[in-house]
Specification:
The protein is about 80% helix and about 0% strand. With about 180 residues, the chain is mostly helical. The chain has two domains: about 90 residues, no CATH class; about 80 residues, no CATH class.
């Protein structure tokens, strides 16, 4: 049984309408961050991982659902504030005009096209005897990194770099610093 089904059943049993409505939306096909946050919060309060929620004792799940139900209005308010911020950003971009935000989607489509060319289109054309100069993968990766840092913020690139360093350390062994 899935974690969402366990929480939904317990919410219906103990009369937790807010939790029940949030999880029903997830099961109904409209999954989102809020439903995931509720599942994670219930699992945390029950002291288990979300994947192991169905194996937890029902008394723990019941108490966890009660605690999260009490916190649910605050969770909804935070989620609503995030959506409001996203909507305000969208409105500001629409007021600035087309060219103020065109660089974002323009670069996204350009980079997607270049990656498809580099690893799909050019090799297929080469198989049919049409040789085009390949796109340098390192240059493409650099352009993609620049775009990610500009569009998603420097913390995204910093996190990717940290994960890459950790991966290399893992490959080389425990004695490498």
């Amino acid at each position: 049984m899935s974690a969402s089904a366990v929480i939904l059943g317990m919410a219906a049993k103990i009369g937790a309408p807010i939790i029940k409505s949030i999880i029903e939306k997830k099961i109904g096909g409209v999954s989102g961050d809020l439903a995931g946050a509720v599942i994670d919060a219930v699992a945390e309060k029950a002291g288990v991982a979300p994947e192991q929620l169905s194996a937890a004792p029902m008394s723990k799940i019941e108490e966890a659902v009660r605690q999260v139900e009490a916190e649910a209005p605050e969770m909804i308010a935070l989620y609503e504030a995030g959506l409001k911020g996203q909507f305000e950003l969208l409105q500001a971009e629409l007021q600035e005009g087309f060219w103020q935000s065109a660089w974002r989607w323009g670069w996204m489509y350009l980079l997607a096209f270049l990656w498809v060319c580099a690893f799909l289109l050019f090799p297929v054309l080469k198989a049919f005897g049409i040789a085009l100069d390949p796109i340098d993968s390192a240059t493409l990766m650099t352009l993609t990194g620049w775009f990610i840092s500009l569009y998603m913020g420097g913390h995204t690139v910093k996190e990717i770099g940290r994960q890459a360093v950790e991966a290399v350390k893992t490959w080389r062994g425990p004695n490498v610093q």
